[in-house]
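Researcher: Structure for this, please.
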Amino acid sequence: MFLQSDHSYNSGQWNDEDLWKEFLNGRQEALGEVFLRYYTRLYNYGMKLMHSDDMVKDGVQELFLKLWNNRESVDHAKCVEFYLLFSLRRILFDQKKKSMSIHRRDQIYMSMNSDTLQSMEESIVEGELESERYRKFNKAMKLLTGRQKEVLYLRLQHGLTNHEIAILLDLSDQSIKNYVYEAIKHLRESIYGHLLIEEF
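Model: Predicted structure, token format:
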């Protein structure tokens, strides 16, 4: 349904905010362009949450179908990417809750995101690491908690602010700041270097 967009929208002259306004005004082609721009990022984020190709693809499709069907009640999005990530995360976890028993929820959640930082190493490390530091870096990331990995992934891979991540994960700003601080501290201590971004 949303695999095609009008040529006037994919010319590169339309920014996300303007496309969103066009979508809210009833232009399906505008939503189609949003779909094409963000599908890969949404799919990758969904896979880091659920590790299920079918579930993630269904979730993304459900997201855009809901957007179109409920367009008259959809709010203006100051950050389209954040809005989409937030909505997809809610849809995927709703789907997960329906497919598993209550007593297994905590267990499955703890096992999620075991490799969420695999694709963001280039964002953290400047240049190529020496083999020993690279080994220590990978080992240190495996020891981070699932929540720490997800927070760092959203912070570095998607460029979200601490406040935006707090809204996305339904946590306080201070909690996000603490997760980032503890994760960065652990990684820095583990590889004995100053390879990580100072300001978060």
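Researcher: Any notable elements?
Model: The chain has a mean pLDDT of 77. The two ends are 39 Å apart (CA to CA).
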